[in-house]
Amino acid sequence: MKKLIKNILILFAILLLCSLAIKLFLPFFWGDSTQATKFEYYKKNSNNFNAVYLGGSLEYRHLDPAIIDSIAQKNNIDLRSYNLGIDGHGIVQQMSDLDGLLKIKNSNLKYIFLSISSDPYFYPNNMHTAKWIAWQDIPSTYRAVKTVATLNDGLKKRAKYFYYYALTWLESVLKIGIMTDVMNYEFTKNKADNFYIGKQMNGFYPYDYEAYTLMAEYKWQDTMLIESKRVYENDKGKRDSLTASVVRAFENYKLSDQPNKAMVSLLMDAYKKCAKKGIQVYFMLPPRARTDYSLLLPVFNAMPANTKLEFADPRKYPKYYDVQYGYNFHHLNYKGAKILSTDFGNQLVQLMKADRDSI
Amino acid sequence: MLFNSIHFLLFFPVFCYLYLSVPKKHQWKILVAGGYYFYGNFSPFFAIILFVITCNDFLAGKMMDKEPSQQRKKKWLLLSMLGNLGILFTFKYLDFVDNNIRELLAVFHISWIIPEVWFNNWVVPVGVSFLTFQSLSYTIDVYKGVTKAEQHFGYFAAFTAFWPVMVNGPIERAKNLLPQIKEEHRFDYDRMRQGLFRIAFGIFKKAVIADRLAFYVDDLYLHYNEISGWTTLIGGLFFFIQVYCDFSGYSDIALGAAKVIGIDVMENFKRPFFARNLADFWTRWHISLSTWLTDYVFFYLGAYKASSYRVVFNVVFVLALCGLWHGANWPMVLSFTMVGVFMAIRYVWQNVVVRAIKPSNSYRLFDKYFPDFMHSIITILLFLFCFLLFRVHTAQVVINHLHPTEQVEWITIAKTLYLNLFRLNTANYFHEWMLNKGVIQFGVVLFFMFILFFTEAIIGDAKIESVVLTKNKMTRWIIYSLLLISIVWFGIFNNTSFVYFQY
User: Fold this and answer.
1) Which B residues 430-459 touch A at CB under 8 Å?
2) Most exposed: A88, A156, A188, B354, by fewest CB within 10 Å?
3) Residue A222's pLDDT band (cuts 50, 70, 90)
4) Which of A19, A179, A184 sits opposite B438 (nearest CB)?
């Protein structure tokens, strides 16, 4: 029996070594072609940018660096920003993106914008995909399980996600079922299509563009996207109820509400890490997040003063919840994105000016 | 519980440890408990059905043993058949029969008294066809005197609840399994590594090849009206290989798991893609079912000891029955009936034509210049042709579910597929395959299929685990490592259920 167990362990050690050897040749973003394209472009042109937006689709599809930069420049602020938001990236993955970003040499990098728009939960359907497995490592899994453990949900749900993250980590370490994707990445990385970097090569790409230029590679996703738009436009009841829930979260918020400590510490770690490198971090609370704002709002308000950009309150920003500016339930269309980018630029300029005045 | 699930990964070592470490007198209890846990995990209701089958056949066997005359024994055999086939019919065929009666009466504008919804959503117990056939073989064997009736209910319960073969075969016989269940089994290093290697080989076939081929096969049936020509031919071949890898992979896991606990189960596949003709294919594909049907139906009908017409009927009837066993739908029945027709044609050809011309020089010349591999290719093409219907019913259900407003008949799908097969001047949709799934995916699947068939060509009809164990240590470790790495890196693990589970 001992001999059998020993031999099985040796076999798994061989597997582990081979898998780790493969990992040495892969960048952290290899699993997602959009992310790979955006990061590869940034790597090649990093010196052209001094600011980067991280986050998910709420940043990728909503923040137009061209608009924000021009507002800043009109106010004599040198801002040359690049949008590194990637569809589906939540708070934990954003931290891995940040780690990866900080490893890319760019002495000009002065500002990083982080999004507070999600908890560490994810769609279980994403599991077993290269996009979800590729980025998971020990630090990311630790951050995820640590945050999941502190959420206010039942033990069963938290245990389930704990298991999901642990399993995904194992899949990532041993490259379980993803070698075809690795080969795909290796053989096609130099043929990457820059489509998803956007027309102005700044990483911004609204859903409206995507809907009109269906690419075969993403055809099924894009078909779903158009379907989500149709449902959004026709379901007034759901639209109103979503907006009402956001209003409720803001109305019920009290300054004494305790933020989720794990999420705060995750974001503050990022803040301090960047500060050490002389990079200023700003935190953004975007509109239309899927996660309940009663969780996000206390976390957002726990961030340092003069670093917070808030656009989520429907009472202050009704347009972001208006059907004519929406693409689907959780995203703005290009018209909405333009308004948000303008508001973002103006609020950022005020923050930066206040910061300068205080000095 | 699926063999390719994390649940099984936890269940299997715990079961083995318990089974191999308890005293001999308790081992059957572990087998029964493991079997009921394994099967009840799909649904507790399934475990109840298993218990009913077990009680029914144990009682029938025991009563037959007591009866002195064959006439009286026959009554108990009928009770057993009624129980097994009744369960099979109720859960698997009642809806099918009900629908057919309804459709037939509709032709004469008569409405059927039973509402359509009655039997529509009955859950078919997983592997019920395997369970009932295995249990039924016991009572038939007791009736025929091939096997003695089992007097110990626990051993018999362990036979029916023998989980490695319970839901997907091989359909074991009592005379092989029961004596082994009664023996003492202890930890044996050689058996264990042979068993584990066989399990790994089965997972390789299932997770690396079959589930990867599913990408293309799913497309073939869902986009049946866009795919034509060579793409249909390749897709059809992929489907044939997918079913083989899926089913034989499962059998390998079952054989390996049984071997680990010290029990030898019958082989279910012997390189069917190297068969020289249709009859030879039938002795290599799903052997446990083909021998079951041969022993209990074909011989009962008179086998080859009858007039040519009767033999033709026997062959076609048994294959049609085989189709019905596989699925309660007409495309499946037709698929196997077509195989039966081809086999009958071959029988007539051999019996009438070849017998007449064999002594002549022309036949010898023909045989000389028509090599073995050409026979194999023709056999594969004939099966491919018949097996295209194998999945038409499932495709129809999926397509109609996806497009509820545009209902499609199975006959439309079948007709389109067969017509597409004959447009060999085109290769429609192949480009989409390359674009959507990637050239690398296609290359990977071809590579692993080549590895599999190359291995089968080298080892012949020997058992792969025995061949590997004869190699030197270095070669063995290289094979083990490559097999493990191929499974882990290239396997598809999204809990896809085995294709044969629906039967």
Assistant:
1) 432, 435-436, 438, 440-441, 444
2) A156
3) low
4) A184
